[in-house]
Structure prediction request, 396 residues.
Amino acid sequence: MKKYLRFLRFYVIFLFGTGWLFLAGCRNDDMTDFTEDDEVPEVPVDPEDPEDPVAELKVEGFFLLNEGNMFQNKASLDYFDDATGTYSRNIFSRANPDAVGGLGDVGNDIGIYGSKLYVVVNASNKVEVLDVETGKRLKQIDVDNCRYITFYEGKAYLSTYLGSIGDPNAPNGIVAEIDTTSLNITRTVEVGRQPEELAAYEGKIYVANSGGYSPPDYETTISVIDIASFTETKRIEVAKNLHRLKIDEEGDIYVSSRGDYYDIPSRLFVVDTGKDEVKDTLDIAVSDLAIHEGIAYTYSMEFSYVTGANTISYNKIDTRTENILEGSFITDNTVEKIKTPYGLAIRPDNGEILLTDAGDYVTPGVLYCFYPDGTLKWSVKTGDIPAHFAFKTNQQ
Prediction:
């Protein structure tokens, strides 16, 4: 009975931490007009020089995927147009009015590759492939319990838990390869239980395994997949309950462990992809991270069953030295307004910091844009549980 109760306690925080909190009684459908647009101050930015034959990288806009609450079919997709300063909500339903049920249940990841936008919708068991210019649906790819997506040499790679949501007896997960031309699944490979974020680098895919459905029996490894043969060639021992996984400019992996929410805290680990082994451990909790020009930006909202509370922190790491830098990446009093940090990204062209606040998880959130020095530039209302970003640039 104690083991069962511990699983129930974990399952509540697991769903809460991924935007899957079901609180229908708190929903207020009048809170937001999801078809409205907002004008954001201090844009547009200066256009690129038309005389320059090799234009520098410039963000033309970005998509923000709002997860929405599980079982409420409230995932939604927003878009910020950099040229006009317009923030548009719920663009999927506006571009696809005949799509039954809208975008679906729990938007879990998003990415742009070429002319296509890929939206991973976890509880609806699908990937929506959209035209990046119009937002119109090109194809729906059905994949059970899909989680995160990355891209490499003409293919998309998708982690998926398999099994039903929350099932402690679910089978090992897989990584599925999707051809970005035909939009068909071409190959699959088995990895660990409940695989999370993944990244491709120099002919290999690295996948963070969590084992999150069966605490305290978490997974502790990163699966290494050889892309040519599409086989798992190694598992790198790291720590319990892995989640986020990013690769820096030097080819090192930064992977977060969520710990066990009791005695083992969340930590960040650095993996050498040359040796495929852990090279460093950083003594900070991490819920999400983004890497830009030698700096890893991280935030944490670490929950502990011992204290019954969340501990929120914001940090920066010099990825060249692997040292934690002093101070928060938010340098003004905006930090006092943020209740539930949830999504994080850095604009690749100018280093501006994008951070979302999920608030109470059941009403619209807020997107904050900070200058690189950590002071607030603008903010805007989003959909419910704003979480995942994809940048549209002039070089795609």
The two ends are 54 Å apart (CA to CA). Confidence is low (pLDDT under 50) at residues 1-34, 44-54. The chain is about 5% helix and 45% strand. The CA atoms of residues 303 and 309 lie 6 Å apart.
